[in-house]
Inverse folding.
């Protein structure tokens, strides 16, 4: 059984995903900082040569169509608020069933208009005729080197 299926709530699962991010980032040689509380717009800071990269971590197992996974980029109690490029430098998105991380600069998904939903295809093309544009996020798969970028804006 997949470890992430053992949790009783999405909150517990989200906390576990954050721990997985911290472990992966540390394994790649990065210093990870966890702000106290949850009032900031990001989950972690990654420090590199005196610069702080603000990282928002999300996990998803939600299927979308054949072969796709939906990840929601929403925040706030109602879950309907968009993230702002001034508050988040990078998204670390974990597709749980595929055990795949996508590290995407905030500017890619927040400018010019912040996106609220992203679809990932970690298992490849889901059907004949799917366009390459459906895989726009594949270059960011396991892109841990982006944590070294002091300024992704």
């Amino acid at each position: 059984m997949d470890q992430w299926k053992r949790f009783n709530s999405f909150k517990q699962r989200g906390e576990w995903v954050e721990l997985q991010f911290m472990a992966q980032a540390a394994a790649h040689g990065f210093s990870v900082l966890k702000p106290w509380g949850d009032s900031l717009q990001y989950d972690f800071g990654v420090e590199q040569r005196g610069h702080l990269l603000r990282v928002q971590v999300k996990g998803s197992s939600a299927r979308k169509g054949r072969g796709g996974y939906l990840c929601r980029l929403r925040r706030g109690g109602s879950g309907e608020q968009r993230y702002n490029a001034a508050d988040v430098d990078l998204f670390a998105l974990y597709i749980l069933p595929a055990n795949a991380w996508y590290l995407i600069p905030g500017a890619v998904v927040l400018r010019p208009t912040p996106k609220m939903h992203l679809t990932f295809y970690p298992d490849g093309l889901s059907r004949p005729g799917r366009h390459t544009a459906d895989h726009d996020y594949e270059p960011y798969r396991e892109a841990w080197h982006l944590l070294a970028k002091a300024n992704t804006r």
In short: The chain has a mean pLDDT of 84.
